[in-house]
């Protein structure tokens, strides 16, 4: 067999995290495997060869994707041709369904076994994708327990592997120690601000988050904010928003990275919808969820939603456990009011913390081990089938 043993494509940082954990577990269980495709630094640290920069695929939202459509499609065509020539023993698309599912379909039709890691949110919107998923892959690795039945009903094999972040975050968090580690005032209310990890998200939400913090500080004098940023560009965008909104005197610690440390130390959090909401829940930090995007993207997505909520803690809870303020509703006034309501209602804070703890136990499944075992089973089955066909 020429080329790599297993080809993978991760389209953003969360996929790179999953891929890194998976490759580490695979290397522990079997020697001689080789990996290539598209991935980020965590995957490359496990011996992965990335043929293209992962950042080329890290685009979110209909409007934003259209701006980069030609380049993204050119990358997929080139990668598809290479993989069809090299014929890896298995292809794994890690999330990024709009990029990966069509690629998986072509490879599967050519006889290359395919898997998809992280189920697209068919339980939330675009359920019609189940037919496309069935054509593209025979085996889904899913992060949430309620997903398996949805895929099995569509004739797609699904294995629940838990969530990797649930394995790495401790079940019990020492918030006092976390505050001391970050040198935050021990007696102040610590509020984490997480306006998103992408530059596009910061452009829509940085000003709103800063203005909300200013209002909350006016309401509660003894409050300190901590804002972890995912990259230098997002840090710069947050700094610009602070300057633009004349918030230089706001008691705020702006950090590069260290989101887990910030969430561990925080008493409350204002979080942009996405994986960060799950991480906040796993750190048992009461929160309010906010999100803004381009008006056109929001108009398209709103019509496709099946659920009344978008935040992962609410989806897992099956109710509005956490306040969600989206798009036009996500004003500084409304967000400050929601945070103040949470500050004053300690019983509601405790209820969130208790439900978050239940979620943590459910999601803590030794994710990398379960995923690696499923991958090796599929890889070996494909090799046996190939050997039988060639004999």
How is this fold's topology laid out?
Layout: E1 6-10, H1 13-29, E2 35-38, H2 41-44, E3 48-50, H3 62-67, H4 69-86, E4 90-94, H5 97-109, E5 114-117, H6 129-136, E6 139-142, H7 147-153, E7 157-160, H8 164-168, H9 175-181, E8 189-194, H10 199-219, E9 223-229, H11 232-244, E10 252-256, H12 259-265, E11 268-272, H13 275-282, E12 287-291, H14 295-304, H15 312-317, E13 323-326, H16 332-344, H17 346-363, H18 367-390
Parallel strand pairs: 1-2, 1-4, 2-3, 4-5, 5-6, 6-7, 8-9, 8-11, 9-10, 11-12, 12-13
What's the CATH architecture name of the largest domain?
Answer: 3-Layer(aba) Sandwich
**Biggest beta sheet attributes:** 7 strands, parallel
- Strand elements, count: 13
- The averaged pLDDT comes out at 90
Structural class: alpha/beta
Count of domain modules: 2
- CATH-level-4 superfamily name of the largest domain: Glycogen Phosphorylase B
Strand content: 15-25%
Helicity level: 40-55%
Overall geometry comes to elongated
CATH class value of the largest domain: Alpha Beta
**CA-based gyration radius:** 22 Å
- Termini gap: 16 Å
List keywords for this structure.
seven-stranded parallel β-sheet; 13 strands; alpha/beta; six-stranded parallel β-sheet; 18 helices; 391 residues; Rossmann fold; 16% strand; single chain; 52% helix; 2 domains
């Amino acid at each position: 067999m020429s080329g790599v043993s297993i080809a993978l494509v991760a389209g953003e940082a969360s996929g790179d995290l999953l891929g890194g954990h998976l490759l580490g577990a695979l290397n522990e269980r079997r020697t001689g495997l080789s990996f290539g495709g598209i991935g980020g630094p965590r995957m490359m640290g496990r011996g992965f060869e990335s043929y293209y920069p992962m950042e080329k695929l890290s685009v979110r939202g209909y409007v934003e994707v259209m701006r980069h459509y030609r380049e993204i499609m050119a990358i997929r065509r080139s990668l598809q041709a290479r993989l069809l020539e090299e014929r890896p023993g298995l292809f794994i698309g890690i999330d990024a369904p709009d990029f990966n599912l069509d690629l998986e379909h072509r490879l599967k039709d050519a006889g290359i076994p395919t898997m998809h890691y992280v189920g697209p949110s068919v339980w939330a919107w675009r359920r019609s994708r189940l037919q496309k998923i069935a054509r593209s892959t025979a085996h889904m690795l899913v992060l949430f327990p309620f997903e398996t039945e949805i895929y099995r009903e569509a004739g797609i094999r699904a294995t629940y592997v838990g969530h990797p972040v649930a394995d790495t975050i401790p079940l019990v968090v020492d918030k006092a120690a976390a505050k001391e580690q970050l040198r935050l005032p021990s007696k102040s209310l610590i509020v984490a601000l997480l306006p998103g990890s992408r530059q596009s998200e910061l452009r829509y939400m940085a000003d709103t988050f800063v203005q909300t913090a200013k209002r909350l500080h006016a309401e509660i004098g003894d409050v300190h904010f901590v804002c972890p940023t995912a990259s230098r560009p997002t840090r710069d965008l947050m700094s610009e928003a602070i300057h633009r909104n004349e918030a230089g005197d706001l008691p705020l610690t702006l950090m590069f990275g260290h989101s887990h440390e910030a969430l561990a130390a925080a008493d409350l959090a204002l979080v942009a919808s996405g994986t960060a909401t799950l991480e906040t829940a796993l750190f048992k930090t009461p929160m309010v969820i906010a999100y803004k995007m381009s008006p056109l993207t929001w108009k398209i997505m709103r019509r496709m939603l099946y659920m009344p909520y978008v935040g992962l803690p609410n989806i897992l809870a099956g109710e509005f456990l956490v306040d969600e303020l989206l798009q036009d509703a996500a004003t500084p006034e409304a967000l400050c009011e929601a945070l103040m309501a949470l500050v004053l209602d300690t019983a509601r804070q405790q209820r969130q913390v208790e439900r978050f703890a239940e979620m943590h136990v459910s999601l803590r499944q030794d994710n990398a081990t379960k995923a690696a075992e499923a991958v090796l089973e599929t890889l070996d089955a494909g090799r046996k089938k190939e050997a039988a066909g060639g004999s």
